[in-house]
Design brief:
Number of helices: 6
Shape: elongated
Low-confidence stretches: 4-9, 15-20, 217-222
Distance between the termini: 96 Å
Radius of gyration: 36 Å
Number of strands: 44
Strand content: 35-45%
Oligomer: single chain
Mean pLDDT: 86
Structural class: mainly beta
Length: about 725
């Protein structure tokens, strides 16, 4: 060391040994009493005993009562005390509740430098010389606070504003100086250069799903028109307007229908809007009229408080809700998972308007996992507006669901409001809120909204420990439709869930069987989840059915594609170039037949059932789930010694038993018959006689040219295609 760093020392000294990495004692000031400093950790020391360097806003300040601040960082050495703090003063500030706590930020995006968090132990905030909670702080106040340089959080927060309420008489802008004049004795007020114009909306009707986003805010003062009621927040330091809120009466939501004769718009939330003749109407950024408003449009209407009629309406034809997956700034691509589980990608235009907490914000606020409302062009390619909500999470115990109010209550009496977009799950399967049982543990994702809406649920994940009900399901491809059929336990309700919001509730019959038909053009429903809920215990089970693309084929085309696909998979290792045409006369093995049935009937690809055959090692690993599922359904039963003999050829007698069991599993009643008219009826084994008679009467089997059944002949791939095609035709007529 060549330079002395400790004042008054006769030799060169430094405050702490940088070479050895020994930092000075460090902590935070909790409060001061004269020159006595009390630290957050409870320790105290006097500034009278050591020299003090007090840095405020990077400048040396006196170490007196006026310049010692709670929240300052302290560095102590044996020779000197350093206090470091920064003061933050800003106008037009809003307190925002986030998942991490309260954040203070300027409302005006042109002056905003980010924001500062309030630590959880900061206590109350002084507003106009009285202590308030952060949630009670109105928007547009003037703030002064101490910023700690280490954690960058603020303490000793003082907020102030003066409030004026009135009706706008006129707006003036002379030489860049803006002024607002209120009616009567309301007065005249100058606006600061960075004054913010926003809205204070009262809702006549609004869908719960929109409440976390509201109607947003506008930055142009011209939105405050003569005759409108306004609230002004004045900066105490200057008396100028730093925040102007236009009061509006608003209806917000989705159009259910329009009535041309009365000019009435009926909303999904039950609200009815009538537009005053001549009132401005815009749709998709174009000047329009009532006639262009269609069901499904998302509208915002400004109403007259006394009559409830609309004096202006804005509509958009494409509004989605969901979560951000990713945003790439370079190409401005926004990736979204909507609330129905569908994926989208949009181009975020440079002039897109982005709001978060009702405050306009840059695209830096876009982050994966954020809850959003997306307004796009009619083609659904470009984002015009993005409203970002704040996600919160909680874990608790479910108590009750109030269906009439749409509110669920958890342990401790906390209430959450459900919306049309809320998704409920139990053990990973989608259910309805009435399927939740008291005492079940729940994980909740929610967003906050103004009172009285409160917390709006995004999703609820419940966990049930009771035994799940039995559930078997098949999806049978028929001409022009898909038949979903299955069986479950008694006293259950069955849901069919599909993409795009598709849902169907089915009450099984007394035996637990259920059937439902889907039109083939209903493509969004073709990736299905079948869920069964026991209404007595709350137990839940589910099966996912992912339907392959049939390429537009049906009937024999689908069957041939399935059977040939199985054969190609089996032979691919031995003869990769082998084609289906060369395999059509090849006998099918027992395992190949089982897998072909599983794929044709769209059984779940993964089976929850154990495979108990003694020769399990002889079953190819990819085919084991199908064999386990078939055994659990009673379609295959194996041999008395416990074996399955997967690679043995399937005989016609065994095929009759298998297909009879398939019909029974699908809930298809077949004519009881014991008559065998085949020339070789005496050669049909007793264990297969009943099945041969019934499947023959059903129209599946026919005799050979000589009138024989040939029970011991193997079933070829070509024959199985014909049998399964007949099975589908018969299923269609009988299930319907």
């Amino acid at each position: 060391m060549r330079r002395n760093t400790v004042s008054g020392s006769a030799i060169a000294l430094q405050d702490y040994a940088l070479a050895l990495g020994q930092a000075p004692a460090e902590g935070m000031v909790e409060n001061t009493d004269g020159r006595l400093i009390k630290m957050v950790d409870g320790s105290k020391f006097s500034l009278n005993n050591l020299p003090v360097t007090n840095l405020v806003n990077n400048n040396i300040a006196p170490a007196d009562v006026s310049h010692l601040f709670p929240g300052a960082e302290v560095y102590r050495t044996p020779y000197r005390v350093y206090l470091v703090a920064r003061l933050w003063r800003a106008k037009g500030v809003k307190a925002l509740k986030t998942a991490e706590g309260t954040v203070f930020t300027e409302i005006n995006p042109s002056t905003r430098l980010g924001g500062y968090s309030l630590p959880s132990d900061a206590g109350g905030i002084m507003l106009n010389n009285r202590s308030v909670a952060p949630g009670d702080l109105p928007p547009g106040v003037e703030i002064s606070a101490v910023v700690n340089p280490v954690d960058q959080k603020i303490r000793q927060v003082y907020a102030a504003y003066s409030d004026r309420v009135g009706i706008v008489l006129a707006l003036r802008n002379e030489a860049g100086q803006r002024e607002i004049i209120l009616v009567g004795n309301g007065g005249s007020y100058r606006l600061t250069g960075d004054a913010v114009c926003s809205f204070e909306d009262t809702y006549s009707g609004v869908e719960t799903a929109d409440m976390p986003f509201g109607t947003g805010a506008l930055d142009e003062l011209e939105e405050a028109l003569p005759g409108m009621p306004v609230r002004l927040h004045l900066a105490p330091s200057s008396g100028e307007v730093q925040y102007l809120a236009v009061k509006r009466w608003v209806a917000l939501g989705t159009v259910r229908e329009t009535v041309a004769s009365s000019g009435e718009i009926r909303m999904e939330n039950g609200t009815s809007i009538q537009i005053i003749p001549g009132a401005p109407v815009k749709k998709d950024r174009e000047i329009s009229d009532f006639n262009v408003i269609k069901p499904g449009d998302h509208v915002t209407a400004v109403l007259l408080p006394d009559t409830g009629k609309a004096i202006g309406l804005v509509a958009y034809s494409s509004v989605l809700y969901g979560k951000i997956i990713d945003f790439t700034k370079k190409d401005r691509e926004l990736y979204l998972l909507d609330n129905n589980g569908c994926y989208h990608s949009f181009f975020l235009t440079p002039d897109a308007v982005i709001y978060r907490w009702g405050v306009r914000t840059p695209d830096d606020a876009i982050a994966a996992g954020r809850l959003v409302r997306v307004t796009t062009d009619p083609a659904g390619k470009e984002v015009w507006r993005l409203d970002i909500g704040e996600n919160f999470y909680d874990k608790s115990t479910f108590t009750e669901y109030n269906e009439s109010e749409g509110i669920i209550t958890t342990g401790g009496g906390r209430e959450y409001r459900s919306s049309g977009l809320t998704r409920y799950y139990k053990n990973g399967y989608q259910v309805l809120p009435e399927d939740l049982f008291p005492g079940e543990q729940v994980e909740l994702e929610y967003a906050t909204a103004p009172s009285p809406t409160g917390s709006v649920l995004v999703s609820v994940n419940a966990h049930s420990t009771v035994s799940p009900p039995l559930l078997f399901a098949s999806a049978i491809p028929l001409q022009g439709c898909l038949a979903v059929t299955g069986r479950t336990g008694a006293n259950t309700v069955v849901y069919i869930w599909g993409q795009g919001g598709f849902k169907q509730t089915i009450i099984p019959d007394e035996s637990g069987r259920f059937n439902y038909f889907l039109k083939q053009d209903n493509k969004e429903a073709y990736n299905l989840t079948i869920v069964a809920v026991d209404r007595r215990t709350g137990g839940v089970s589910g099966k996912k059915i992912d339907l392959p693309d049939s390429g537009g084929s049906s009937g024999i085309g689908v069957v041939q594609k399935v059977v040939s696909g199985v054969l190609e998979q089996v032979t691919s290792d031995q003869s990769p170039a082998t084609k289906v045409s060369s395999l059509s006369n090849v006998p099918l093995t027992r395992v190949e037949t089982t897998v072909a049935l599983a794929r044709l009937l769209n059984w779940p690809e993964a089976s929850e059932w154990s495979l108990l055959f003694t020769d399990i090692e002889d079953i190819p690993i990819p085919f084991r789930p199908a064999v386990a599922e078939a055994r659990a359904r009673g379609i295959i039963k194996g041999y008395p010694d416990g074996s399955f003999l997967p690679m043995s050829n399937l005989t016609r007698a065994a095929a009759a038993v298998v297909l009879a069991n398939v019909l029974q599993d699908a809930g298809i009643a077949i004519k009881k018959s014991s008559e065998l008219t085949y020339a070789d009826a005496g050669n049909i084994p007793a264990w297969a006689a009943k099945a041969v008679a019934e499947t023959t009467a059903f129209g599946l089997f026919r005799g050979r040219t000589d009138g024989a059944f040939a029970p011991d002949d193997p079933v070829t791939a070509g024959e199985m295609i014909i049998l399964l095609e007949r099975l589908l035709d018969a299923c269609r007529s009988l299930i319907q």
